[in-house]
């Protein structure tokens, strides 16, 4: 080979030599360092805790009482004794209608009653005189026909008195209806009519003027719907527990959309008697105390209903759960400190409980679950399981020096 040709191949020879050198170094490292060490992971048995399964639903609050305040008599509105949105109590005066025409009608009815009462008194006296003459058998003094006429006059006078008494009662009611009071405790809506307007009333109700609305606030209902399968499960649960004999008395808890958890306690008080043919659901209702007005009719919330009796469940941290497409799994290991390949167990998840995840199926209480270090696990690679370190106990509070933070009690 000539010198120019050798110069052209020199770089190739140099690179080949470097490659052989690196390979040799790698073989020496593997032979000298040995196999890579197994990665450590933390293992622990699942916690066993008694829990109750729950179903959650979304619903909304409804008022127990919703009253539309309408006029029962016609007249001009002359009083409004509340502010819009005010809390009112049963019996508080809300509206006033001009009472003067109804006072006049009452006075006239009373006058008619007094006149009919006077006619009745005269008829009674006239009948008593005729009765005396008949008993004395003075045939020429009064005839039988005249006596019968006086009896009929007395009965007619009594009937007229009764009619006028009813007219007086009706006039008194109309006068009473000019003052509209609250029939329930609740919160007022806005007024629909201003002072000075003519309002229409009457017994028909269809044309009565709507003046305002009142909704009760404490207690308050919460309505929601649940499916037929849940309804059957609740019935069976109630038969097993035998606590009340009805679904409509089981305890429930509730949380608002803006709240975490279910801090408000209440109880079911009604379940409908028909399952909807269109949706296959049935309506339920719970009642909650609302002394501070936190719940407003129409507001949405989340309700939690017991779906099982208390039972033992297995719980693991969420960090111990892996995902394989749509399936969830955990890694489990055998006892011992020797390196081993973790096994996968597919599990079914439940709800969260005290920061842990309930495992409803796929796991045993004696399984050692990898709870920390999942990122170190590789397919087919061995790891070393290390027990989870015990949490340190809270240190007892230091005793306060004499004379500090304590108050001496006098001896008896």
TrEMBL record:
InterPro entries: MdtA-like_b-barrel, MdtA-like_BSH, MdtA-like_C, MdtA-like_HH, RND_pump_MFP. This is MexE family multidrug efflux RND transporter periplasmic adaptor subunit. Residues 312-374 form the Multidrug resistance protein MdtA-like C-terminal permuted SH3 domain. It comes from Ancylobacter defluvii. Residues 106-178 form the Multidrug resistance protein MdtA-like alpha-helical hairpin domain. It comes from the Bacteria. The keyword Signal applies. One of its GO terms (biological process) is response to antibiotic. The lineage of its organism: Bacteria, Pseudomonadati, Pseudomonadota, Alphaproteobacteria, Hyphomicrobiales. Residues 1-23 form the signal peptide. Residues 387-412 have a biased composition (Low complexity). One of its GO terms (molecular function) is transmembrane transporter activity.
């Amino acid at each position: 080979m000539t010198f120019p040709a050798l110069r052209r191949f020199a770089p190739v020879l140099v690179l080949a030599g470097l490659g052989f050198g690196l390979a040799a170094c790698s073989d020496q490292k593997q032979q000298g360092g040995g196999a890579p060490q197994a990665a450590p992971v933390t293992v622990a048995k699942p916690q066993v805790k008694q829990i109750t399964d729950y179903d959650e639903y979304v619903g909304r609050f409804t008022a127990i009482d919703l009253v539309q305040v309408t006029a029962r008599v016609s007249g001009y509105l002359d009083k409004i004794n509340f502010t819009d949105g005010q809390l009112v109590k049963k019996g508080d005066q809300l509206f006033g209608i001009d009472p003067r025409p109804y006072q006049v009608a009452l006075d006239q009815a009373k006058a008619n009653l007094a006149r009919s009462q006077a006619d009745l008194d005269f008829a009674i006296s006239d009948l008593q005189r005729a009765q005396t003459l008949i008993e004395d058998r003075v045939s020429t003094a009064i005839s039988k026909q005249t006596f019968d006429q006086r009896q009929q006059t007395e009965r007619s006078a009594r009937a007229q008195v009764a009619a006028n008494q009813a007219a007086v009662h009706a006039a008194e009611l109309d006068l009473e209806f000019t003052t509209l009071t609250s029939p329930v405790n609740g919160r007022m809506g806005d007024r629909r009519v201003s002072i000075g307007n003519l309002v229409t009333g009457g017994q028909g109700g269809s044309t009565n003027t709507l003046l305002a609305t009142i909704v009760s606030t404490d207690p308050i209902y919460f309505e929601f719907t649940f499916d037929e399968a849940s309804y059957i499960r609740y019935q069976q649960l109630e038969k097993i527990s035998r606590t009340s004999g009805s679904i409509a008395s089981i305890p429930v808890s509730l949380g608002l959309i803006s709240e975490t958890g279910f801090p408000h306690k209440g109880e079911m008080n009604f379940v409908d008697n028909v399952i909807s043919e269109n949706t296959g659901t049935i309506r339920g209702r719970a009642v909650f105390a609302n002394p501070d007005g936190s719940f407003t009719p129409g507001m949405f919330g989340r309700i939690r209903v017991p779906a099982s009796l208390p039972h033992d469940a297995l719980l693991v941290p969420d960090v111990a759960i892996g995902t394989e497409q749509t399936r969830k799994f955990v890694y489990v290991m055998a006892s011992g400190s020797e390196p081993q390949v973790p096994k996968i167990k597919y599990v079914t998840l439940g709800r969260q409980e005290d920061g842990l995840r309930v495992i409803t199926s796929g796991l045993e209480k004696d399984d050692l679950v990898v709870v920390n270090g999942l990122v170190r696990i590789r397919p087919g690679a061995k790891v070393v399981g290390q027990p989870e370190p015990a949490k340190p106990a809270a240190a007892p509070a230091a005793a306060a020096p004499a004379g500090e933070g304590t108050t001496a009690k006098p001896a008896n």
